[in-house]
Amino acid sequence: METAERDGCPALILAPWGRDAAVAEALLRQAGSASIICRDLSHLSALLGDEICCAVVTEEALRGADLAAITVWLATQPRWSDFPFIVLTQRGGPPDANTGGESLSERLGNVIFLERPFHPKTFVSAVRTAQRGRSRQYEARSLIEELHEGDARLRTALTAGQLGAWELELPTYRLTASGACTAVFGWPPGRPFTFGDLEAGVHADDRDRLREAVRQSTETGDDLAMECRNLWPDDTLHWAELRARVVRDRKNNAMRLVGVSSDVTARKTAEDNLRRLNETLEAKVMERTAQLERAHEAVIEEVRQRERTEEALRQVQKMEMIGQLTGGVAHDFNNLLMAVMGNLELLRKQLSGERIVRLIDGALRGAQRGASLTQRLLAFARQQDLRIKPTHLARLIRGMTDLLERSVGASIELKFELPEQLPLTLVDANQIELALLNLVVNARDAMPEGGTITIRVDAVSSTGRAELTEGDYVRVTVSDTGCGMDAATLSKATEPFFTTKEVGKGTGLGLSMIHGLALQLNGALRLVSEAGRGTQAELWLPVTSQASGAPAQEEFARQGNSPVVARATILLVDDDPLISTSTSYLLEDLGHEVIEANSGADALDVLRTGQRVDLLITDYSMPKMNGTQLAYAARELRPGLPILIATGYADLPQKTNMDIPRLRKPYQQQQLLAEISKALCGVQARPTSSSARNVSDTTDPEVD
After folding, report:
1. Residue 311 burial (CB count, 10 A)
2. How far apart are CA 331 and CA 352, in angstroms?
3. Cβ neighbours of 164 (radius 10 Å)
4. Cα–Cα–Cα angle for 37, 38, 39, nearest 5°?
5. Which of 472, 338, 337, 475 is nearest to 419 (CA)?
6. How far is CA 36 from the centre of its chain?
7. Rg (CA), the chain
8. Contact 177, 191 (CB under 8 A)
9. Chain-centroid distance, C-alpha 107
10. From the candidate CATH numbers 3.30.450.20, 3.40.640.10, 3.40.50.300, 2.60.120.1440, the one assigned to the domain spanning 161-263
11. Contact in structure between 442 and 509 (CB atoms under 8 Å)
């Protein structure tokens, strides 16, 4: 890094008298550093710029000179820049002589004084010190640019979610709000918007609630979450949702609230309409019930059943609406994470230095946690990519007994009731293991003083009531002797982001993920709990008549590592430049030749030219022609062409005539290598043994 900066970052030399300039230039040239000799102070001022590493100036060239142009340039430096000067002084002279009433240190800022005559090594060392300092400034510039890029991506995510960002400084109550945030309150763009303006616009009946929510969040550190009515300047009534968290300083003092806002008028209007409809419906039901009670009591039961069904339907509609929103946001976020993770992997190979590697590894871990979060969101939205096969659940649970016992600790007794005679059920083994681990860890956390967790598997039947269709099921029950939940908490337990744990201990997606997984497998999650009497979680999964395949352990023994694939020509298709560029670099780093296309039509043009293409990798979600349509058209041109379709979730059509392997986003280079190996060599991926599975291979366990 230091050599690169010296070669491409010259030093300026101003020594108008004697041979000082020539000597300094020669010493720097011998040390491998470029330099430019300046005629006078004006020449030096004109050459000053961000890509100059330092300036070597004799003291007599500055004494009594007009430094206004230099000091103006120094004052307008970017925040990352602190330009260094090396001032060559006379022996015995003052090292920091006054110039126009101020010392050189005061006028120039970053100054190194070097007394003449000096040893050549001393001079070169001083210049290298300045170069190293300048190099660190360039690193700071790169980090600032990366931060700006991250901020831009955050703004993109906020825009995609139709969210406005805001910050409230404490205790001054100075408000900073984005244009999207002020728009939520009907404020015209560009006009100043203060917290007083926000309060004044809130409906009088909700104003005290807003103040109390801000006060409580500031004092307790709890997240702020509330909905309030607000009157726009045109006197129309709207609804706003505010969510925020408290940011503290190193002394744990509350410094500001950072949050987002959204316009929920449409949802509240729909809820009001639904409430009025429900009130009308309830009135009619009550009237009809009175008539039926006078006529016949097996009829009263029918009406009650209808009421329960309607309530269940309302809950299903509510969760479906939230699921669609979270699924869409998670899919877009997957694409952003794909670019971040790909670029970080490549950076880690290019850069050296322990500190830089630690920073990149930390960023990668953060991106991987983000990927885990999106997988939980997709699980809740029932849009995750499942690999289902007939499974004997009792055997599956026996295989992860050691993992469960290590997870609960010594203070909790773990009991199993796992009969061998059980029907099979179609499940994704990894996801079921993760769901069971979540339930066990939740049960453990509900028993801080110790207790008993019982895991039972049995065969049951459903009569078709509530959320389950009529038929046979295998039921996995996890029960504990812990603190239990009251009715209010139980009613919200499977809602996304709801958690009773303290901040930082959970995201509120554990049970919602299991709920989404159960629905995606045509089953259900049922919770039975009472405060002080423990909790019982039941996972109902439908029975299948399909025969089971080879046990996981046998299949694991047959498979080997994916072989190293020879150099291949890969046609990469993606309409997102961020994804296309990062994936292209990952493929080239693996030694492959990459042809990029930003649409299905461009990809077909490449195939028609007759160029060599060994493998087609295409994104699924693209305008005009999606990945499946492109695959059909490509196979018509080249029938034997191997194809991979990259997708953020299971959004491919269910009925296709081609067995097209999928590459799940966000993927890393090793996953990309494995899938390319399978596609080009016909190698199956190594399965994960349920007895030795590392939970982090899929997603971190959510413990809510």
Report:
1. 11
2. 33
3. 23
4. 120
5. 475
6. 47
7. 33
8. no
9. 46
10. 3.30.450.20
11. no
419: left (phi over 0), alpha (psi -120 to 50) or beta: beta
Per-residue burial over 41-76, b if 16 or more Cβ lie within 10 Å, else e, is beebbeebeeebbbbbbbbbbbeebebeebbeebee
CA angle 135, 139, 141 (to 5 degrees): 110
Alpha-carbon distance of 510 to 550, in angstroms, equals 30
Residue 78: which of 131, 14, 143 has the closest Cα? Answer: 143
* β-bridge pairing 11-14 and 35-37: parallel
Amino acid symbol at 227: E
Report the alpha-carbon distance of residue 390 to residue 375 in Å, rounded: 23
List of residues 6+ apart from 131 with CB closer than 8 A: 2, 5, 6, 9, 11, 33, 53, 54
CB contact at 8 A, 441 and 403: no
Q: Count of residues for the chain?
A: 704
Domain 389-552 class in CATH: alpha beta
Same CATH topology for 2-144 and 389-552: the answer is no
- Nearest CA-CA partner of 23 in 142, 116, 155, 158: 116
Candidates 3.40.50.2300, 3.30.470.20, 3.30.559.10, 3.40.640.10; CATH matching 561-681: 3.40.50.2300
Domain 2-144 sits in CATH at 3.40.50.2300
Distance of alpha carbon 78 from its chain centroid, rounded?
30
- Give the start-end residues of each E strand in 90-156: 98-99, 102-103, 110-115
What whole-number distance in Å separates Cα of residue 140 and Cα of residue 161? 31
Residues with Cβ within 8 Å of residue 498, at least 6 apart in sequence: 492, 508, 512, 704
Closest C-alpha to 459, from 471, 470, 474: 474
Q: Residue 391 — left, alpha, or beta (φ > 0 → left; ψ -120 to 50 → alpha)?
A: beta
User: Does the N-terminal peptide bond of residue 563 adopt cis geometry, omega within 30 degrees of 0?
Assistant: no
Q: Quick check: bond before 701 cis, omega within 30?
A: no
Inter-residue contact 519 to 382 (CB < 8 Å) = yes
Q: What pLDDT score was predicted for residue 37? A: 92
Of 396, 470, 469, 475, the closest CA to residue 437 belongs to 396
Torsion angle, CA of 49/54/60/64, rounded to 10 degrees?
A: 40
Q: How many CB atoms lie within 10 A of CB 142?
A: 10
Single pTM value for the model: 0.44
Contact 493, 543 (CB under 8 A): no
Crossing angle of the two packed helices 300-350 and 120-160, in degrees rounded to 10: 160
Single-letter amino acid, residue 459: A
Mean pLDDT by 10 residues, the chain (704 residues): 53 88 88 90 90 90 86 89 89 55 77 86 88 88 78 62 82 88 87 89 91 90 90 90 89 88 88 85 82 69 70 62 61 72 76 77 74 60 64 88 81 90 86 82 86 92 79 91 81 65 54 78 86 87 74 39 70 88 87 92 92 92 89 92 80 58 80 86 41 33 39
Domain borders along the chain are: 2-144, 161-263, 389-552, 561-681
Question: Shortest CA distance to 464 belongs to which of 542, 380, 382, 393?
Answer: 542
414: Cα separation from own chain's centroid: 35
Contacts of 685 (CB under 8 A, 6+ apart): 559, 562, 674, 675, 678
The pLDDT, as a whole number, for residue 502 is 57
Q: What is the Cα–Cα distance from 294 to 121, expressed in whole angstroms? A: 109
Residue 479 contacts residue 535 (beta carbons within 8 Å) = yes
Residue 102 is predicted with a pLDDT of 60
